[in-house]
Amino acid sequence: MALIVQKYGGTSVGSIDKIRNVAKKVMATREQGHDVIVVVSAMSGETNRLVDMAKSISDPPNPREYDVLVSTGEQVTISLLSMVLDSEGCPARSYTGWQVGIKTDGSHNKARIEEIDEKNIRADLDQGRVVVVAGFQGIDNQNNITTLGRGGSDTTAVAIAAALKADECQIYTDVDGVYTTDPRVEPHARRLDKICFEEMLELASLGAKVLQIRSVEFASKYNVPLRVLSSFQEGSGTLIVPEEQIMEQALISGIAFNRDEAKLTILGVPDKPGIAYKILGPISEANIEVDMIIQNVSADGTTDFTFTVHRNDFKRAQDILRAIAETLGAREVQGDDCIVKISLVGVGMRSHAGIASKMFGALADEGINIQMISTSEIKISIAVDEKYLELGVRVLHSAFGLEEAAA
């Protein structure tokens, strides 16, 4: 007998029929002899509806009252699922975040979990009940309701699994696992049986939308085995585990991409100590996140400085950069909000040379120009013109044989 934590997202509980389907999956796990804790999101569209109501009154809304409002979506789901389970002869009890003792810091709308009081959960499990917990929410030390940010139900599930030392945390969603890349872009994309935490973190941070980054960080920190499964079809999904639990590491595990990139360049800046800070300091103070950075020094003692930001921040960052250019006496500011980022990810890169050259060669053969390059120990990211996104992903997927199962 194992302790299993299952998390179901908004699309999985979007109607009473879907909630009944979730109940069947929960009961099937129970019939295998396992204890089950279920974490659920609000029904699909419900959180957006609540947010829109709040913003129709005040934008931005009062943070404390906003959390009180949006946390109600999950309360509806936990009660409905518990009712269905009870009606099917499976004892269940629902808990909101504060009832189950999920203690957080006081950062409304983006709180972080500090501790979980497992007493109530343990007591119900010992009495043979399924415990149904509202995801995405907790309570601070002033007894204020807090929320963890969008997608926070994943984090709730992993945190509960860590606190109760669960054997596995299963994330049920509308996809049946983690793929080598998005199947909508590359039809030959292959579902991975296993992937390590480090690779999943990179893929999530680079644009893969399967799991929330914080939940993967939490699972990695506390060694909680994560499994991504589909709510709508049977299958073993993808298991996310520590690297040492994967016998044979693939050279490249996946290709992530991000369509929301924009590039800014400030030309002819005096090449002096501290110039990077003078450029990026005001950008950071405006709460604009910078991604890839390139600095080129020319023979005349000036430098060209290029960086990327989220496309939504492009105009604001461009205005700030123009003001900086005037102050620094730079020659010109250029911008391009029609670029994308494509990234290769794989822990196998650590022990294999030539990955970058193979990547660049495959793209060159298709006439795809690389504008920027960024690397880490297990990742190579490039920026290219957005018209090359799908071609670039397919070319690299083929070049590294990702459609073939690992030996």
Describe this structure in words.
This protein has 407 residues and is α/β, with parallel strands linked by helices. 34% of the residues lie in helices and 28% in strands. The chain has twelve helices and 18 strands. The chain has helices at 16-31, 46-57, 63-70, 72-87, 119-126, 152-163, 197-205, 213-222, 275-285, 314-328, 355-365, 389-399, and strands at 3-8, 35-40, 92-95, 102-104, 113-116, 130-134, 137-139, 145-147, 168-173, 194-196, 226-230, 238-241, 254-270, 290-297, 302-310, 332-345, 372-376, 379-385. The strands form four sheets. An eight-stranded mixed β-sheet has the order 3-6-2-1-9-11-12-10, sandwiched between helices. Helix 1 (16-31) crosses helix 4, helix 7 packs antiparallel against helix 8 (213-222) and helix 11 (355-365) crosses helix 12 (389-399). The longest helix is centred in the N-terminal third of the chain and has 16 residues, at 16-31. The radius of gyration is 24 Å and the shape is globular. The mean pLDDT is 92.
In terms of topology, how is this protein built?
Blueprint: E1 3-8, H1 16-31, E2 35-40, H2 46-57, H3 63-70, H4 72-87, E3 92-95, E4 102-104, E5 113-116, H5 119-126, E6 130-134, E7 137-139, E8 145-147, H6 152-163, E9 168-173, E10 194-196, H7 197-205, H8 213-222, E11 226-230, E12 238-241, E13 254-270, H9 275-285, E14 290-297, E15 302-310, H10 314-328, E16 332-345, H11 355-365, E17 372-376, E18 379-385, H12 389-399
Parallel strand pairs: 1-2, 1-9, 2-6, 3-6, 9-11, 10-12
Antiparallel strand pairs: 4-5, 7-8, 11-12, 13-15, 13-16, 14-15, 16-18, 17-18
